[in-house]
Amino acid sequence: MKNRSRWTLLGGVLLGGALLSACASSSAPSSNKVSLSINYYHGAISDTAIENAKKAFPDYELNFKQLPANGDFDTKLKASLNSTSAPDITAINSNIADYIPYSDRFVNLLDYGTADLAQDYVEWKWDSCFTNDKSAQIALPLDIGPTALFYNTDAFQKAGLPTDDQAVSELLISDEAYMEAAKQMKEKADMPMFQSSVSLLRQRYRAMTQHIYDKDDNLTYADGQLKKAWDYAVMAEKNGYTLGAKGNSAEGANSVQRGLFGGMIEASWGINDLAEDGASPKQWLVAKSPFLPSNYGGSYLAVIKTTAHPKEAADVVKYLTNEESQRVNYKELALFPANKKVFDDDFANVKHELFGDEQYNHYFIEAANALEYIPFDPRESAAFEAFEDQMTLVAEQGKDPEQAWNDAKKKVEEISK
Hints:
alpha+beta; D-Maltodextrin-Binding Protein, domain 2; three-stranded antiparallel sheet; 11% strand; single chain; five-stranded mixed sheet
């Protein structure tokens, strides 16, 4: 069994390398131009930004390769970092902390003048691109995912809650106020406020000001903040304030399209999800989040050390993350800019057919500007997943919440050894 497992693992690594090699081989130069291969996942870079980059670098042969946005992207990228099969430039998702330990396998962009760009970006996102000692910058920010409250106007009206975005923002000013509104929605409209206890736990987790591991890699469970988030989600589940629909699924999309629950705290790119889920105009509007400002998602571009053209690749990365590129990414993909130059009056006052005359972007801008960088331990995602899994058992199988909490902690302690 051990040998079989070993070869299965190696086979996966070799397969990943082979696939990336196939991507890289497509960038073989057909002329004397500098040839650069650029791997990105679906939804990370707009078609217009790609075409603009090709026009901006007529002496370069830029070969963009779009890959599925799933876990395989990370697996294949990590497998290729020490080989010539790696692309010259790669997108990295919001899990950039997973790549900081491999900083020596990326080009240090500080060597190519990026320090002068710091003032252009929201500070916390910029800081996340660096090693802990700030000696190396492995990426530049493509976009961010500041959050706000998306609320169901019909559900709020039935519950006797306000439907104007400013009034909603003034009423739901805290965790407690949000839970009180959930109680009112249950009593007066017989509807749940939340899609599920698991999604609510995620939303509260993203709003924490500390992580499960502190900056010195110690396991702290966010000094009590994680338990408060857990208890908040349990309270909603036990009081019948949750629908029980799974997010990122057909069931979840259906619950949004049919307006089966009251509110969700989601990133700005959730606007595209609403459209894809078939939401009707003015069915959902945007208000300030009742939780502390949080971020959900956001990508980066990095240059891999094996490139034969580090300066040229760095120049392309700087272009693809500049103000112009982030404006078109927002226009086509609703990717919220990390570049603060985009935050002008036109951007703040933007409208969308789903929200009628509401000018909603200021809620996302306020969240983006209020956030602070929190160091992210590479074990963080796996640790939080243990709590997500246990919350699922609470919701779907009626597991005792305290036992579930303790079982999650036990797994995290094993991860932390």
